[in-house]
Amino acid sequence: MSAQKGKDLLLKIDDQGTFVTVAGLRTRNITFNAATIDVTSQDSVGQWRELLAGGGVKNAQITGTGVFKDAASDARMREVFFNGEVPPLEIIIPDFGSITGPFQIAALAFKGEHNGEMTFEITLQSAGPLSFVPL
Q1: Which of 7, 67, 91, 109 is the most buried (most CB within 10 A)?
Q2: What are 70-73's contacts with CB under 8 Å, separation 24+?
Q3: Rounded CA gap, 78 and 81, in Å?
Q4: What distance in Å separates the CA atoms of residue 135 and residue 1, rounded to the nearest whole number?
Q5: What is the rounded CA–CA span in Å between residue 6 and residue 74?
Q6: Per DSSP, what are the bridge partners of residue 10?
Q7: Which residues have CB under 8 Å from 40's CB, separation 6+?
């Protein structure tokens, strides 16, 4: 796989059945986790740890910093945060795929420089099953 342009990662929100771009993320981190369930017993071969296949809780966390597409996008994400909504989001990873599913905004921060644009920092936590579609 060749290198991809980081600037092409997009955050989209479901707007009545259609995903619309909310923001481009300048810096971002996507983490997938799966908790493990240890089922090691005295009968485990060589006393090596054994894990229960598919038994742990899965989650995803997306953090990023960027610029909202417009004032409406900014307002929509603030509304989602303050109302505690868990809307379907789509995250486009260039030349890789898209991740779609319900997410909750766990943190939302705004930052502005005197001579620059207003930026935001966001942390999204998965809140249900996610799907991945390769591009």
Answers
A1: 91
A2: 73/21, 73/22, 73/23
A3: 5
A4: 13
A5: 21
A6: 24, 92
A7: 47, 48, 49, 50
| pLDDT tens per residue, range 109-132 | 998 888 877 888 999 999 999 999
The two three-digit tokens of residue 58, written as one number: 């899965």
Measuring CA to CA, which residue among 31, 30, 27, 29 is closest to residue 111? 27
Length reported for the chain: 135
* pTM of the shown model: 0.82
The pLDDT of residue 118: 83
- How many alpha carbons fall within 13 Å on the CB side of residue 10? 15
**C-alpha 52: how far from its chain's center?**
26
Between CA 10 and CA 127 the distance in angstroms is: 19
